[in-house]
Amino acid sequence: MKLGVLDIGSDKICCLIAVIEKDNQPKIEGIGYRDSRGIKSGIITDMELAQTSITSAIQAAEKMSGVTLDEFIVNFSSNTIQSDLVNLTVSLDGNEISSQDLKNADKKAGEINLGKDRILIHKILTSYTIDNQKGITNPISIKGDQLIAGYNLITASKNAVDNFVKCLSICRVKISNIVATPYAAGLGCLTNDDFFIGTTVIDIGAGNTSIATFADNKLIYTNVFELGGINISSDIAKGLSTPISEAERLKILYGSNLNPNEEENLINIPLTGEEGHAMSHKVPKKVLNNIITSRIQEIFEIVKSKISKPILNKNFTNNIVLTGKTSQLHGCLDIASNIFGTTVRFGKPLGVKKLAENISGPGFSVSIGLLKFKMLEENLNKINTNLLLKNSLIWKKLGTWVKESFF
C-alpha cells in the first residue's frame, strides 16, 4: 500500500510518500520539502503562493519515489483548534450493555451542536463509566443503570478549514484525513510508555506552538496558540535593529549552541538600511541570548497555564516532551524544566525504519506522525468493530500492535 502525507507549516511544507511493508512498518520512498509561502500559523494568507509551495513539495516527493498520488493525509495547525471533553449518558435500567448502547453514545457525540462556525476534526473516545465505576475498557455485557461515554471532541474554525481544503483542492489533492497537528506530533515522537503513563508533548513550530496530552493510550487534550520560531526571529530583528533574514541566521547560528562562558564575547550584527550598505554594530552574545530565552519562557508559561486545568490530572503533565524545530534552541530544556518543575526531554521521529538523516530531527515529528496515524486509524477501526462483536481481548491486542509496529 502506498501512502502520502503532507505536513503543512509556516516554515516548511514536507511531503512524504511511503510504502507500508508486510511488518506494518512504513518505508519512505519519496521526500519533498519546500519553504512555505502564503501560509501563516496554519492559516492560508495567499492562496496562489500556498498552492505553488504545496505543489512543488508534492512533485519533488513523487519524482524521488517514481509514484504519483492524488490522495494525502494532511495536518491542520491553527490557533482555532480547541479540545472539549464531553460525557454522553445512556440509560440502562439495570440491563446488560449491548453494542447498540455504544452506538447510541457514539451517535450522540457526533450530533453535539458545535456551532455554525466550528467543524469537527476528531471524535476520540476517552472513557467508559458504569454507575460511577470508572476505568471500564469493554462495557459489553456488563449490567448497570447508567453508562457514561467520555469523548474528546477536537474542533476548529470552519472558515479556516474550508480555505485550507479549497487550497488543496485547487492543487488537485484529495484529502483522505485531516489530522490536528498536536495529535500528529505526539504520534510521531512519543513512545508506547509515554502514551500509557500520561505525557504532554509540546511542539514548537515556526508559527504555532501545539500541545497534546495523552493518557491511557488516548489523546485527552489539545491546544494550539500563535507563538513560535517566527516570533523569536522578529524579536531579534527588532531588538538588534537587523534585517529579519539576519535575525533568522543569528537565531540558528547562536541560538542552538550559545556557551554561557562566552556571553561577554561580541558578535557582529548587520544593521537595517539601504541594500548594499555594509553597516553593522557589535553586541554581547548575552544580549542575543536574553532575547531568545525571554520569548521561550513566555511560550512555556502559556503552555503551563493551559495544561494546569482541573480536567487534566497532574500525573498526565509530569512527563513533558519537547519537539519541533524551534525546541532545539539553546536553553529550551532547562527553561522548560524550571517552569514545569519536572524532567523534560526532547522527542524526535520514531517508528520508521532507515529514516533518512535529513528528516530525522524534531522538526519532522508531525510528518512521521501523519504516516503512523493512518495505520493506527485502520487498527482502531478494526478494534471498534470487534468491540461491537464482544471481543474482550481487543484492548490488549491494540497495545501489542502499537509496541510491535513502532517500538
Number of strands: 18
CATH superfamily of the domain at 192-346: ATPase, nucleotide binding domain
Content-based structural category? alpha+beta
| Spatial order of the strands forming the largest sheet | 3-2-1-6-11
Order of helices and strands: EEEEEHEEHEEEHEHHEEEHHEEHEHEHH
What proportion strand?
Answer: 25-35%
Name of the CATH architecture of the domain at 192-346: 2-Layer Sandwich
Poorly predicted runs? 382-398
CATH class of the domain at 192-346: Alpha Beta
**Termini separation:** 21 Å
What is the oligomeric state here? single chain
- Helix percent band: 25-40%
Q: What do you see in this structure?
A:
This protein has helices spanning 47-65, 99-110, 158-170, 181-189, 192-197, 229-240, 244-255, 285-307, 332-340, 365-388, 394-406; strands at 2-8, 12-20, 26-35, 39-40, 43-44, 71-76, 82-91, 118-130, 133-136, 146-157, 174-180, 199-204, 209-215, 218-225, 266-270, 280-284, 320-323, 344-346. With 407 residues, it is of the alpha+beta class. Among the domains are: 82-156, Dna Ligase, domain 1, CATH 3.30.1490.110; 192-346, 2-Layer Sandwich (Nucleotidyltransferase, domain 5), CATH 3.30.420.40. The strands form five sheets. It has a five-stranded mixed sheet with strand order 3-2-1-6-11, with helices on both faces. A five-stranded mixed sheet has the order 14-13-12-17-18, with helices on both faces. Strands 7-10-8-9 form a four-stranded antiparallel sheet. Strand 13 (209-215) and strand 14 (218-225) form a beta hairpin. Helix 6 packs across helix 7 (244-255). The longest helix has 24 residues, at 365-388. The two termini are 21 Å apart.
